[in-house]
Amino acid sequence: MSPTHTGVTATPAALEPCGGEDHPDCGIRDVLDRIGDKWSVLVIVELAGGPRRFRELQRAIEGISQRMLTLTVRRLERDGLVLRTVYPTVPARVDYRLTGTGAGLTHLVKALADWSLSHRTAIAEAREAYDRAHPGHDIR
User: Fold this and answer.
1) Which residues belong to any copy of the HTH hxlR-type domain (predicted)?
2) Beta bridge partners of 95
3) How far apart are CA 118 and CA 123, in angstroms?
4) How many whole angstroms separate alpha carbon 4 and alpha carbon 122?
5) What are the residues facing 83 on neighbouring strands?
6) What separation in angstroms does the CA of 59 have from each of 42, 80, 132?
7) 46 contact partners, CB below 8 Å, separation of at least 6
8) pLDDT of residue 23
9) Which helix (H) or strand (E) element contains residue 43?
10) How many Å from the N-terminal Cα to the C-terminal Cα in the chain?
């Protein structure tokens, strides 16, 4: 086999990882599309502490625009992870809270945050070493 060989050896569909070309979609792509973006994760983290109003969320999540927060909570609501409640007051009061399904993500998000915190230094050092060894390969 040559060093430039890029062929892939075929395996039975049952042995391919979920999401493989010949494997039935197991839903992981949809989940990663939603929770794989930083805004959704940050909204979930904020709502893990309990219900929040829109402006409370916006103030708590540094750098998120009103439009992006609106899109994010709508997507999370559509996916059944967030519940939007409108109270019949003048002006109307709206709050957001995690559903049972959304709350089930919080331990996973916390585990990821804990892992990130404990490996932050090692990752930063690896990036610096890579950048020194591969000048001009800006892949950020």
Assistant:
1) 26-124
2) 53, 85
3) 10
4) 31
5) 97
6) 12, 24, 38
7) 52, 57, 60, 61
8) 63
9) helix 38-47
10) 32
Quote the tokens at residue 96: 């957001």
Q: Of 45, 20, 34, 33, nearest to 114 (Cα)?
A: 45
Residue 67 to residue 92: CA distance in whole angstroms: 19
Q: Note the pLDDT of residue 10.
A: 47
Q: 63, 19, 69: which is closest to 44 by C-alpha?
A: 69
Q: What is the pLDDT of residues 26-76, one digit of tens each?
A: 777 777 777 778 899 999 999 999 999 999 999 999 999 999 999 999 999
Q: Are 85 and 79 in contact (CB under 8 A)?
A: no
Q: What single-letter amino acid sits at 113?
A: A
Q: Give 48-63 as a DSSP string.
A: TTS-EEHHHHHHHSTT
3-state secondary structure 108-128: HHHHHHHHHHHHHHHHHHHHH
At 125, the amino acid letter reads E
Question: With 70 as the cut, is the pLDDT of residue 17 above it?
Answer: no
Where residue 125 falls (left for φ over 0; alpha for ψ -120 to 50; beta otherwise) is alpha
pLDDT, mean over the chain: 85
